[in-house]
């Protein structure tokens, strides 16, 4: 899919190492200052190992979308079908696990294009609701999701070593008019 500023495509197993490296780097940029270095490294080594990402890419219930510009891959999104938390009430939900954009491309429309691609992907998959968890201190992301019509429906704790983060659970219909 070609859009105004980036080209978006589905990731394959060959992209696992790239996605793992980018995901680890952007996660550390987002929360690294608030987590003990040892705990952060343990989480990153597990959550963003190339083998784990390759397994997730291969799962039928999981969809990774890569956004590329002239400089290469500048962001990615991960959608997954599965059991949502009880606070998510919309029908046929899919989780937006991650939507990451490199710091150099934040504010350039890449996130918008990835979100639009995620909604199109969810629609094609028959999903009716899209939900996500976002760190309650990530105000830029919360503002982004607000602009896309996501509504707060609950909270959950995200434990990273000895650090407990509070995540907001947000959801919206895939097609807002329905």
Poorly predicted ranges: none
The level of helicity is 25-40%
Largest sheet: 7 strands, mixed
Identify the overall geometry: globular
Strand content: 25-35%
Structural class: alpha+beta
Question: What does this 3D model show about the protein?
Answer:
The protein is built from five helices and seven strands. It has helices spanning 16-31, 37-47, 50-58, 110-124, 139-147, and strands at 7-10, 62-69, 72-81, 93-101, 129-135, 151-160, 163-173. Strands 1-2-3-4-5-7-6 form a seven-stranded mixed sheet, with helices on both faces. Strand 4 (93-101), helix 4 (110-124) and strand 5 form a beta-alpha-beta unit. The protein is globular and about 45 Å long. The model has no long low-confidence stretch (mean pLDDT 92).
Task: Please outline the helices and strands.
Layout (H helix, E strand, L loop, with lengths): L6 E4 L5 H16 L5 H11 L2 H9 L3 E8 L2 E10 L11 E9 L8 H15 L4 E7 L3 H9 L3 E10 L2 E11 L5
Parallel strand pairs: 4-5
Antiparallel strand pairs: 1-2, 2-3, 3-4, 5-7, 6-7
Question: What's the short version?
Answer:
The chain has 178 residues and is an alpha+beta fold. It is built from 5 helices and 7 strands.
Structure characteristics:
178 residues, alpha+beta, seven-stranded mixed sheet, 5 helices, 7 strands, 34% helix, 33% strand, globular
